[in-house]
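Sample pair:
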Amino acid sequence: MVAGALSAAAVRGAWLELKRRTDAEPSAGDRWIRANYRDRQVSLLLGPAVGVGALAGLAAAVPATRRAAYLAVAGAAVIGGYDDLYGDRHARGLGGHARALRNGQVTTGMVKLVTLTGTAAGAATVRYRNPVDIAIGTVLVAGGANLINLFDLRPGRALKVTAATAALLSRAGSRETRAVAAVAAGAALAALPDDLGERAMLGDCGAGTLGALLGWAAGMSGPRARRAVLAAGVVALTVASERVSFSDVIERQRALRTLDLVGRQRP
């Protein structure tokens, strides 16, 4: 509870401070402005605010493995911020970036993929000693960061997925798992009003941060077999996303569509 509350408070404080600074000097925030799915101009600065909140919450959540957790989560935040500011959008999905690479073009998405995987592997190496555990931890953190980003296509969607996943993780696993899940939930709930209100969006920075938090929590959720199943689920969803649109699935399922629309502004 302390870690989650600290995370939420830090997200709100960082977001309000960033907003105050950009309101005072609008040109400073211009590079963080993007058009959302309804072509409304919103700020990506909510992502860095979520990153600040996550790191603040981790200080209370994982005292024993703080260095590794910071590496995993801060790495995802920085890499996501790089893609928000400098990313090219002509290649989509893992397949699109792979095809571009075969044609001799290194996309920012490929750079993000490689660096995110490397950072996740580095954090897992600090946390674990067994190669199998390192591989599972790498998949959970890097795959989780990518997966939450795939849901960040409508206001509040990635945050709702984060909060729901954190709630599931908090019911099982170690005390550290529950604490990190609380950090993710606190950050998500603190960011939700501005995301739903279409004043801001998570971007790769915020979504990657939350996904890495969930991946780290899942990586400490119990026996290796359980963690392996979770990692396999992340891989399966990532592969499925190459062929199936999550937005289409949500639109076709009444219950999912209803949850997706909760709190969102109507057209």
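The chain has 13 helices and two strands.
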